[in-house]
Amino acid sequence: MKTTTKTKLAALIGASLLTSTFSSFANEQPTGSELVGQYTAGFHLMNIQTDNERTFTADSNSYMDQGNGFGGEVSYRWLPSTEFRLSYAQFDLQAEYSEFESVEPDGSSLAVDLLFFPTEKNFYVIGGVNNLDIGSSQISGNLGAGYRHYLSNKSAIYFESKANYQFSDRYDELTTQVGFIYFFGGESRSSSTSKPTAIAAAKAIDSDKDGVIDSKDKCPSTPMVDKVNVNGCTIFVDSSTSIQLLVNFDNNQAIIKPEFYAEVEAMANFLKANPSINLEVEGHTSSPGTNAHNKALSVTRGNAIVERLVSVYQIDRSRLSVVGYGEERLLNAANNEAAHQQNRRIIANVSVTKKVAVKR
To answer: Where are the domains positioned within the chain?
Structure first.
């Protein structure tokens, strides 16, 4: 039995695996998604441990021992976790007993495999079919696992082992490979991941803390308490505010009674808070009296409101106007004192709509 060859191959495999393990953190490896669409080409060394029932001749002692050889391969990364591979290798078969060395033939392997990377990184499992030619060409199913160590964004070494089962004669073989592969085609995006993180960080700066980064923020310096849209601009909604002024007068009088001062002051405050708003004061009377007299009296009542707004609260006179309706718009058409008291009035309504920021 040729133990020297076995020892050398085992040492090679062990050294490769040890180097891969201890240097796995020394290089930045591409991710599975960065390898999608890329091809590989490479070569490998192979060792095959044959089934202990295989013999070279009819002699029951002519057992096969193993085979050593080399081969080449190509593969394609279909998905971040999935790669297809076609490989071919030739190997020299060796006899278990030295007296049968003269009949040792060559063998070959043609395999189509699917490599599945569960974490899309180094470790993978293998499944596929293998046309093993060991004395005769026979189809085998294979299953195994491997480990790939990336030397750079474009190259890697690997170690793997597969169990092969020949369906026709029910032989079990074990193949072990150590190989080197090179990536080409597609677009290697891993180089972009090695750019200084400061560039990415700069693009992600959100100076006004509104949740939209500066590069996409069309409204910088929005208040932190404001709710913003996708462009970083404050979201506004319409908010309407209205106020009504209603003052009643004594019969045939245009004097504002003290009990209505608070209502006039409230209107004055509203006008001060909304300087763009103008106010129209409507004067009204009850039905007794002539139309002409009632019309003039309604205007006088309206002017009494205007004068108080101007003199007491300093509202600009140009913002105020009066219209007298006399008895044209009675609130109560009954001919009694209660109705007359209700109709002797001034009334003013004003409203304003503003854009109000929506808060978080």
So the answer is: 3-192, 237-357
Is residue 173 within 8 Å of residue 164, measured between CB atoms? Answer: yes
Size of the chain in residues = 360
Instruction: Please give the single-letter amino acid code of residue 252.
Output: N
**Spatial contact of 43 and 179, defined as CB atoms under 8 Å apart:** yes
Give the CA angle between residues 311, 300, 264 to the nearest 5°: 45
pLDDT of residue 89: 95
Interior angle at CA 155, CA 154 and CA 161, nearest 5: 140
What DSSP string describes 337-356? Answer: HHHHHHHSEEEEEEEEEEEE
pTM of the model: 0.46
Query: Class for domain 237-357, per CATH?
Result: alpha beta
pLDDT tens per residue across span 206-220: 888 888 898 888 998
> From CA 360, how far away is CA 358, in angstroms rounded?
7
CA distance 344 to 143: 102
Contact 351, 241 (CB under 8 A): yes
Long-range pairs for 164-169 at CB < 8 Å and ≥24 separation? 164/130, 164/132, 164/140, 165/140, 165/141, 166/51, 166/132, 166/138, 166/139, 166/140, 167/138, 167/139, 167/140, 167/141, 168/138, 168/139, 169/138
**Matching CATH number, 3-192, of 3.40.1180.10, 3.30.450.40, 2.40.160.20, 3.40.50.720:** 2.40.160.20
pLDDT in tens, 125-170: 999 999 988 877 889 999 999 999 999 889 999 999 999 998 888 8
